[in-house]
Amino acid sequence: MDVKLISITPDFLKKIWVAARTCYSSLSPIELMEMEPDEDEMLRIANKIIKSRHLSVLEHCSMTFAVKNVSRTLLAQYSRHRIGISLSVQSQRYVSEESAKREDGVFDFVMPDDIEKNEEARKIFLEAMKKCQHYYDKFKELGIKNEDARFVLPGGAATNFVTTLNLRSFFDIYEKRVLTRGAQWEIRQLLLKMRELLLEKEPWLNEYLVEG
């Protein structure tokens, strides 16, 4: 798995402060943007907003991530979080998984750690991937389209996507996929990588995005 932060709203804290103050101030947001409040004041407002769960102002802050080599199983889980989240996914209809187009002759896939650490399980898993590749190639030889040949590929088949989400949505998916007991390892790993990249830009959020 590889995750890159490719764009982000500048200065989350100032945007949150302006949005929150707009709701209760006689000043316009244009006037508020021209002000230079100190960091302690902005943190005070942000903390009050977040602790009281008035999270709509967080929607003005967004981030875009490029995600590489995650499973279709993860994609199915991630795509359930639709509100405030945009998603552009590599298509199995248009991108062929034929072995001739793959460097090592097998489509990209994700192997769970529990399987990889067990020698016998790892062997079985690799054989299964090779069989899926074999049948995919057979379908293509028979003139079957990518969109139908892909039905033989497993949930572990790898994909890539770009996703944009606002800060409120990030808080929500982070809580459900990192802090909630029983969250699956791969999507938890994805969210923790996103968190790390976000905190490099907005370290003040560390208080609200504990690792769990």
CATH topology category name of the largest domain: Gyrase A, domain 2
Secondary structure category: alpha+beta
Would you state the CATH class of the largest domain? Alpha Beta
Beginning-to-end CA distance, first to last residue: 21 Å
Observed structural traits:
2 domains; 9 helices; elongated; alpha+beta; 47% helix; Gyrase A, domain 2; 212 residues; four-stranded antiparallel sheet; 15% strand; 4 strands
Lay out the secondary structure.
Elements: E1 2-8, H1 12-24, H2 29-34, H3 39-51, E2 62-71, H4 72-78, E3 85-89, H5 113-116, H6 119-141, H7 146-149, E4 158-166, H8 167-179, H9 185-201
Antiparallel strand pairs: 1-2, 2-4, 3-4
Helix pairs in contact: 1-3, 8-9
Give a summary of the structure in a few sentences.
By secondary structure, this protein is an alpha+beta fold. Helix content is 47%, strand content 15%.
Structure description:
- The mean pLDDT is 93.
- Helix 1 packs across helix 3 (39-51) and helix 8 (167-179) crosses helix 9 (185-201).
- The radius of gyration is 22 Å and the shape is elongated.
- The longest helix is centred in the middle third of the chain and has 23 residues, at 119-141.
- It has helices spanning 12-24, 29-34, 39-51, 72-78, 113-116, 119-141, 146-149, 167-179, 185-201, and strands spanning 2-8, 62-71, 85-89, 158-166.
- It starts with a strand and ends in an 11-residue tail after the last helix.
- The protein has a 4-stranded antiparallel beta sheet.
- The protein folds into 2 domains: 2-88 and 159-207, 2-Layer Sandwich (Gyrase A, domain 2), CATH 3.30.1360; 96-156, no CATH class.
- The chain has 212 residues and is α+β, with helices and mostly antiparallel strands.
